[in-house]
Amino acid sequence: MKENFLVEIISPDSSVFKSETTEVTIPSFEGQMGILKDHVPLITFLRPGVIIVKHDKGEVKFFTEEGTVEFVQNNLLILSSTARTFDNLKKENIENIIKNTQELLDKDNINDKEKYLLSYKIDTLKEIN
Amino acid sequence: MPSLDDLKKRIKSVKSTQKITKAMKMVAAAKLRKAQENAEKGRPYSKKMENIILNLTKSINDPENAPKLLVGTGKDKTYLCVVLTADRGLCGGFNSNICKLAKVNFKKIINEGKELKIITVGSKGLDQIKREYGKYLIKKFSFKDKKQISFNEAQIIGNEIIDLFNQSAFDKCILFYNNFKNVITQIPQAQQIIPATNESLEKNKENSFSYEFEPDEDEILDDLLPKNISTQIFKAFLENAASEQGSRMTAMDNATRNAGDLVDKLTINYNRSRQASITKELIEIISGAESL
Questions:
Q1: Looking at the DSSP assignment, which residues form a beta bridge with residue B119?
Q2: Predicted-assembly ipTM surpassing the 0.85 threshold
Q3: Sign of the C-alpha dihedral computed for residues B141, A82, B180 and B89 taken in this order
Q4: DSSP 8-state class, residue B141
């Protein structure tokens, strides 16, 4: 297939995912972003959200809290210390995470950027749950 | 000449020591496999992160306003040295090698009339450094109770360093750890993490792409640079963990072999003196019989 390119998700302790793909959707800091083959070279970073990797047979989804993305020469590289599949996420008791995040959000001493990130985290988790 | 009983006791004690070192070697070998795997798995992340930063650095148009974490404070006065060691001993020269390298650097920094600040991670390094350089110590970490060091621990230290940097407590930060090459070779290393621009980055300045940045370079750098520090520390942790086990395995292997040699030697001694006492008894009997 000509429309394929390579996507790799790497965490500090292992390579989480590596595969050929036709389209990847990432929760970029400024909004959802779809990446197809021959995208211009790109560097960006992520907010909490869902990474969707589409390939011939279907799609794979990952939850992530942060990350850095580089796309160059049809290689998409996602560096994230928090990327995990939904199955792994469900083992961790989503409701508890939401509760803890909400507590952080309710504190007074956080700035707008943190608020923005935390509220996205809660929204995404609620959606998954 | 020690008596037969004494020799017997010594042989027994050396044998039990040998058993212990042998067991430690086995444990280290098993742990090594895992640690080595982790270290190798962790390498791509830190390497790719470095790459991205390199690419970003190349596309910065205005170096004067670039983040200080990347280009430094412009001064060269205070050094922060982070010494990463193990929490356990009995691993050959592992801890001392790191401390030796660190101390050489400390001396150099002080001789040049610069200020020195030290953070130690792991209790063995602390023991060795506080004797001579205790007054420069500003913080110590130990993760003794943690079975497996995760990214969180690296982040704790990373955040601490960044806090200090933001308070302008230092200008340059150097990391000391052992780089795992293979089971018998571990190379102690001094790696500068702040400012992030260094020679290895300068070297491969070719093949640049014109990137699109989303949102913009500065914001990405602001997000990426602190992360890079934690990543580099985590990498150092992983390399260190593998090196520690490798070093322990070799050390314990040597100890086991030495104990074996010692047992052989003692056994010969033991046999000799046993034979000597038998001969002595025989001579006594024979000469007794002759005199009758």
A1: B82, B139
A2: no
A3: positive
A4: E
What mean pLDDT is predicted for residues A16-25?
Answer: 89
Amino acid present at B28? A
In this structure, are residues B174 and B198 in contact, taking their beta carbons and an 8 Å threshold? no
pLDDT tens sequence across B205-229: 555 667 788 777 778 888 888 888 8
Whole-angstrom distance, CA of residue B265 vs CA of residue B260: 9
Q: Which position among B81, B91, B99, B173 bears the catalytic label?
A: B91
The yes-or-no verdict on residue B25 having pLDDT over 90 is yes
Handedness of CA B128, B134, B138, B139 (dihedral sign): positive
Residues of A in contact with B55 (CB under 8 A): 43, 70, 72
- Cα of A38 to nearest chain B Cα, Å: 13
**To the nearest whole angstrom, how far is the Cα of B89 from the nearest Cα of chain A?**
25
Distance CA A64, CA A70 (A): 16
Residue-wise pLDDT for B235-276, tens only, equals: 899 999 999 999 999 999 999 999 999 999 999 999 999 999
- Any bridge partners for residue A77, and if so which? A8, A70
Q: How many residues does chain A have?
A: 129
Q: How far apart are CA A85 and CA A70, in angstroms?
A: 20
Report how many helices (DSSP H) and strands (DSSP E) chain B contains, helices first.
7, 6
* Tally of helices (H runs) and strands (E runs) in chain A: 3, 10
Q: How far is CA B26 from CA A80, B146, B255, in A?
A: 35, 21, 13
Stated pTM of the model: 0.85
For residue B276, the model assigns a pLDDT of: 94
- A-contacting residues of B 102-161, CB under 8 Å? 150-151, 154
Q: Which amino acid is at A58?
A: G
Q: Domains, chain B, ranges and CATH?
A: 4-21+252-290 (1.10.287.80), 32-251 (3.40.1380.10)
User: Nearest residue of A to residue B148 by CA position?
Assistant: A13
Q: For residue B285, give every residue at least 6 positions away whose Cβ sits within 8 Å of its Cβ, in sequence order, or none.
A: none
